[in-house]
């Protein structure tokens, strides 16, 4: 019986406390980071799908910037996901596509611009449908 009273009092003290225990705060922050990262990955996927659907010559930098911009706006987890996905994509494409170092550098510049909060429309080509 005393054990249950101690557990009840301990629970009340924890719930009544204005501050959460550090372990709980760390778990909440980690949960937010994971949620932001998953959302950022979805943003990057959506930008990729839009790029494929638009199939518009010269618009790839715009979609790179837009995907990174949307992901980074979610928070640190989204920015992390955008950086990891962008870097992996560029490493893979630089080996496979054969477009060269200059194209990879320009893509990375657009990625970084979007992650820093820059307007993706800077890279928007004339004539790209308003849908995108």
Structure description:
- With 132 residues, the protein is mainly alpha-helical.
- The mean pLDDT is 90.
- The protein has one domain: Serum amyloid A protein (Topoisomerase I, Chain A, domain 4).
- Helix 3 (60-72) packs antiparallel against helix 4.
- It has helices at 2-16, 22-54, 60-72, 76-96, 101-115.
Mean pLDDT: 90
Radius of gyration: 22 Å
For CATH, the homologous superfamily is named as Serum amyloid A protein
Tell me the number of strands.
Answer: 0
Please give the CATH architecture: Orthogonal Bundle
**CATH class membership:** Mainly Alpha
Number of helices: 5
- The first-to-last residue Cα distance is 65 Å
Give the % helix: over 70%
Strand portion: under 5%
* Low-pLDDT regions: none
For the biggest sheet, the summary is: none
Structural class: mainly alpha
- The H-and-E topology, N to C, reads as HHHHH
CATH fold category name: Topoisomerase I, Chain A, domain 4
The number of domains: 1
Query: Judging from the principal axes of the Cα atoms, what is the shape?
Result: elongated
Family: Belongs to the SAA family.
Signal peptide: 1-18
GO cellular component, one term: high-density lipoprotein particle
InterPro entries: Serum_amyloid_A (IPR000096), Synovial_Prolif_Regulator (IPR052464)
């Amino acid at each position: 019986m005393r054990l249950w009273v101690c557990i009840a009092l301990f629970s009340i003290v924890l719930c009544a406390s204005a501050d959460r225990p550090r372990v709980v705060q760390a778990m909440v922050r980690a949960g937010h980071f994971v949620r932001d990262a998953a959302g950022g990955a979805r943003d990057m996927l959506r930008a990729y799908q839009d790029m494929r659907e638009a199939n518009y010559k010269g618009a790839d930098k715009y979609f790179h910037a837009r995907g990174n911009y949307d992901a980074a706006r979610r928070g640190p987890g989204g920015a992390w996901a955008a950086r990891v996905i962008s870097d992996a994509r560029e490493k893979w494409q630089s080996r496979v596509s054969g477009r060269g170092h200059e194209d990879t550098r320009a893509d990375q510049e657009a990625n970084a611009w979007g992650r820093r909060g820059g307007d993706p429309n800077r890279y928007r080509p004339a004539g790209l449908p308003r849908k995108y």
